[in-house]
């Protein structure tokens, strides 16, 4: 393989690749349908022209046939009048028109065949264009969907690897850590508060019990069945001594706790 052949092949390959990349399916579909419609217009014009030519040939053929019949009648009339020379001339004219009619008939048959073929092609092209228009809309929708899917996939891929997404994930983790610390602090603070209230509750019970005891002791003097009073001061001091000893003993036990 020569150098120029290799260079030519490389150039053609690169050009084909550039053209393929530059082709937009939606635009190419529109362009294809437009070109088909242009071909349809040209074909319609060709069919119309062929039909017009067929009509002219048919008129000429009919006129030649009519002239041939006319000169045939004139030749017969000349023979009836006994003028053979005039009849001969009339027959010559008839022959000329018959030959013309025969030629025109061959041409007319050819034109008729061509017109029928053009009509079939016209109908076929119209059917293809109608089908192409239907497919065009469908293919454009499919091409748009495929393009959207490709763009979406590329966007998702970029988001998954972008620094913005990583930063978002880091901030989310940071917020979760902040919430965990806040919850821990709240729980610790709540425990301290509960301990403080728990410390107050026993004191309140003791105060209530102490008040109750005071009320009982105070009300003891009003007891309807009091103990008999001491007969003398000496006996009173003797009875108070064990009580004082018990109070002293109680204080010592409380101090030792």
Automatic annotation (TrEMBL):
Residues 26-74, 101-142 form a coiled coil. Transmembrane segments: none annotated. It comes from the Bacteria. Residues 248-257 have a biased composition (Basic and acidic residues). Keywords: Coiled coil. Residues 218-240 have a biased composition (Polar residues). This is Phage shock protein A. Residues 214-257 are annotated as: Disordered. Belongs to the PspA/Vipp/IM30 family. PANTHER family: MEMBRANE-ASSOCIATED PROTEIN VIPP1, CHLOROPLASTIC, PHAGE SHOCK PROTEIN A.
